Input
Amino acid sequence: MPTRRPDHASPWVLDARPLGRRPGTMKAYRFSAPVKIPMGIEVLAVPAGAEVDLDLRLESVAEGVLVSGEAAGTAVGECSRCLTDIEVPVGAELRELFAYPDSTTAATTEDDEIPRLVDDLIDLEPLVRDEIVLSLPLAPLCRPDCAGLCSGCGERFDDLEPGHSHEILDSRWADLAAKFGVPTPIPGAPSAVSVVPGTNGSVVSGANGAASSAAGNASGIRRTGDTSSFGVGMTDADFISDDEEN
Ligand SMILES: [Zn+2]
Ligand SMILES: [Zn+2]
Output
């Protein structure tokens, strides 16, 4: 927080003179200040035009003025999983010494470590900004268990029917299905599409990969009669032998 000359007229600037540089003197402030430059991170910030509520105590100490209290506001942004617009209450604890320019503290520290009083003025904006940014979640959510977006269609799971899924996730099988006219899977039997290439045992492919187990054919849709040379270029992982047909 490099020290700039505070603007006396800014609502973020407090005058420390009433404390009279008498250690132990204390003064309380409660007010709201408008945000000019959004306070936050890319996905979540207290926007320009919003107000931050400040509940502060200024306390004169030997080396300067100790500012403590709370800042509160409302950040707006979007859910990092489903991209829905969200509003999040934000709050930050403040505790910062503003050093007198002629103090030992000022002589032995940089002003980006310990801010200074300049002309007996305290600029709260950089302090509040830093603390609010630190208080924000890096990945904000609309709710803790947000289900996010369907990777198949990009829709929010919250907006879709329960159990929503896409049958063919492996593009190689989608291509084969199109080429050989394999019908799209029957609703209610979504776990596998199997094709039987002649006498070498049928080919069972899980439409969603995970179903490609030896038991996958139990719920699979079986097509017989296609003797075309499926399997060219396929790896063992794509095919699971099924001896039941033989
Ligand atoms: Zn969400
Ligand atoms: Zn979908």
Notes: Residues 171-245 form one domain. Residues 125-135 form the longest helix (11 residues). The radius of gyration is 32 Å. The pocket of zinc ion (ligand 2) is lined by residues 150, 152-153, 155, 164, 166 (CB under 6 Å).
